[in-house]
Amino acid sequence: MKVSYDPDVDVLRIIFRDALIVESDEDKPGVILDYDQDGNVVGMEVLNASQRVDNPRDMIYTVMA
To answer: Would you say residue 62 lies in a domain?
Structure first.
Protein backbone atom coordinates (compact mmCIF):
# COMPACT_ATOMS: atom_id res chain seq x y z
CA MET A 1 0.00 0.00 0.00
CA LYS A 2 1.24 3.48 -0.84
CA VAL A 3 0.01 6.82 0.47
CA SER A 4 0.98 10.16 -1.02
CA TYR A 5 -0.13 13.74 -0.59
CA ASP A 6 0.49 16.45 -3.18
CA PRO A 7 0.08 19.86 -1.50
CA ASP A 8 0.30 21.70 -4.83
CA VAL A 9 -3.05 20.24 -5.92
CA ASP A 10 -4.25 19.23 -2.41
CA VAL A 11 -4.83 15.57 -3.34
CA LEU A 12 -4.37 12.60 -1.02
CA ARG A 13 -3.82 9.33 -2.90
CA ILE A 14 -3.99 5.85 -1.40
CA ILE A 15 -2.94 2.93 -3.58
CA PHE A 16 -4.09 -0.40 -2.15
CA ARG A 17 -2.65 -2.58 -4.88
CA ASP A 18 -0.39 -1.98 -7.85
CA ALA A 19 -2.81 -2.93 -10.62
CA LEU A 20 -3.98 -1.51 -13.90
CA ILE A 21 -6.82 0.95 -13.33
CA VAL A 22 -9.62 0.31 -15.82
CA GLU A 23 -12.32 2.46 -14.25
CA SER A 24 -12.60 5.38 -11.85
CA ASP A 25 -15.76 6.59 -10.17
CA GLU A 26 -16.42 9.65 -8.04
CA ASP A 27 -18.38 7.76 -5.38
CA LYS A 28 -19.02 10.90 -3.34
CA PRO A 29 -18.09 14.46 -4.35
CA GLY A 30 -14.31 14.72 -4.04
CA VAL A 31 -13.70 11.00 -3.40
CA ILE A 32 -12.58 8.99 -6.42
CA LEU A 33 -12.33 5.20 -6.32
CA ASP A 34 -10.16 3.33 -8.84
CA TYR A 35 -11.05 -0.21 -9.95
CA ASP A 36 -9.15 -3.02 -11.67
CA GLN A 37 -10.52 -5.22 -14.46
CA ASP A 38 -12.28 -7.49 -11.91
CA GLY A 39 -14.07 -4.59 -10.20
CA ASN A 40 -11.83 -4.56 -7.12
CA VAL A 41 -10.98 -1.21 -5.54
CA VAL A 42 -7.24 -0.68 -6.04
CA GLY A 43 -6.91 3.00 -5.18
CA MET A 44 -8.57 6.10 -3.85
CA GLU A 45 -8.09 9.84 -4.30
CA VAL A 46 -9.35 12.50 -1.93
CA LEU A 47 -9.63 15.90 -3.58
CA ASN A 48 -9.29 19.06 -1.47
CA ALA A 49 -7.71 16.79 1.15
CA SER A 50 -6.76 19.59 3.55
CA GLN A 51 -10.48 20.34 3.95
CA ARG A 52 -11.45 16.66 4.46
CA VAL A 53 -8.79 15.20 6.77
CA ASP A 54 -7.17 16.59 9.91
CA ASN A 55 -3.63 16.70 8.54
CA PRO A 56 -2.96 15.21 5.10
CA ARG A 57 0.81 15.57 5.65
CA ASP A 58 0.77 13.25 8.69
CA MET A 59 -0.06 9.58 8.87
CA ILE A 60 -0.21 7.01 11.64
CA TYR A 61 -0.02 3.39 10.55
CA THR A 62 -1.02 0.66 12.97
CA VAL A 63 -1.15 -3.10 12.52
CA MET A 64 -3.70 -4.70 14.82
CA ALA A 65 -2.50 -8.08 16.03
So the answer is: no
Pick from 44, 56, 52: which is nearest to 2 by CA?
Answer: 44
Q: What is the number of domains present in the chain?
A: 1
- Percent of the chain as helix, strand, coil, to the nearest 5: 5, 45, 50
For residue range 8-50, list pLDDT tens digits in order: 999 999 999 999 999 999 989 999 999 999 999 999 999 999 9
Q: Which of 60, 45, 34 is nearest to 10 (CA)?
A: 45
Report the predicted TM-score, pTM, of the whole model to 2 decimal places: 0.86
32: in domain: yes
In a domain, 59, yes or no: no
In 3-state terms, what secondary structure has residue 25? strand
Q: Residue 58: inside a domain, yes or no? A: no
